[in-house]
Write a structure and sequence with these properties.
Layout: H1 3-21, E1 25-31, E2 36-41, H2 56-65, E3 71-78, E4 84-93, E5 99-108, H3 110-122, H4 135-157, H5 167-179, H6 188-196, H7 200-217
Antiparallel strand pairs: 1-2, 1-5, 3-4, 4-5
Length: 218
């Protein structure tokens, strides 16, 4: 296989990955024989374009750190404009075993960082002192709500960030939360709505669809 044939094949792979990952993820194909970008989708993430020259020391640093599968997955990086990125690299070799191409996926994590900050702000509760002896009751209710909110956050973090933006991903999250009994807790519904950015009516429709799915499988 020639280098041009290899790059043409990897360009098609990169194009497909960009469609899957969405507009906040840059997918880049590097031609290591020329030290430049051969293909790029969503270049606005880093501001680069086809033909962009990369410092050879960058390639050497990546190749030095790849694992046995020629992968370097999910490490922290930053764009020239200061955006936080989750970067993953896949190195491809020629017939002689030398690195000749590299496929990179750079995810802009700013939206997910903002979501986590929002969730963390929602679980910050100030202690309440009750002179009439009702402090234990208030504490118990706050404790249950706090644990419920943490369960929601944990469930969100275990899913792929891109999944939360799809109906299927939202349904899967709701399925997990139902199993945990989240919706039996007071104020859980509006909290989940704020996390998923949906209305209560939409959320109830999703929950109804889940019940219908469960009844169909019984």
């Amino acid at each position: 296989m020639t280098q041009e044939e290899r790059l043409d094949m990897l360009k098609r792979v990169a194009c497909g990955l960009a469609k899957v990952m969405g507009n906040d993820t840059e997918v880049v194909l590097h031609d290591l024989t020329r030290g430049e970008v051969a293909y790029i989708a969503n270049g606005h993430v880093t501001g680069r374009a086809v033909g962009y020259k990369i410092n050879p020391s960058v390639y050497k640093a990546v190749i030095k750190r790849i694992d046995a599968d020629d992968h370097l997955i999910g490490y922290g990086s930053q764009s020239s404009s200061g955006k936080n990125l989750r970067a993953s690299h896949f190195v491809f070799r020629d017939e002689a075993g030398e690195p000749c191409a590299m496929l990179c996926i750079n995810e802009d994590t700013s939206k997910y960082e903002e979501m986590l900050r929002f969730l963390q702000s929602k679980i910050q509760l100030r202690p309440i002192a009750d002179e009439d002896g009702g402090a234990d009751e208030v504490f118990d209710e706050n404790y249950i709500q706090r644990m419920t909110q943490q369960a929601i956050i944990d469930s969100v973090e275990r899913m792929k960030p891109t999944d939360i933006n799809t109906k299927e991903g939202k349904m899967e999250l709701l399925r997990r939360l139902r199993i945990k009994g989240v919706f039996n807790v007071k104020d859980a519904v509006p909290y989940v709505c704020s996390v998923l950015s949906v209305s209560q009516a939409t959320l109830y429709n999703y929950l109804r669809d889940l019940r219908n799915e469960e009844s169909d499988t019984e």
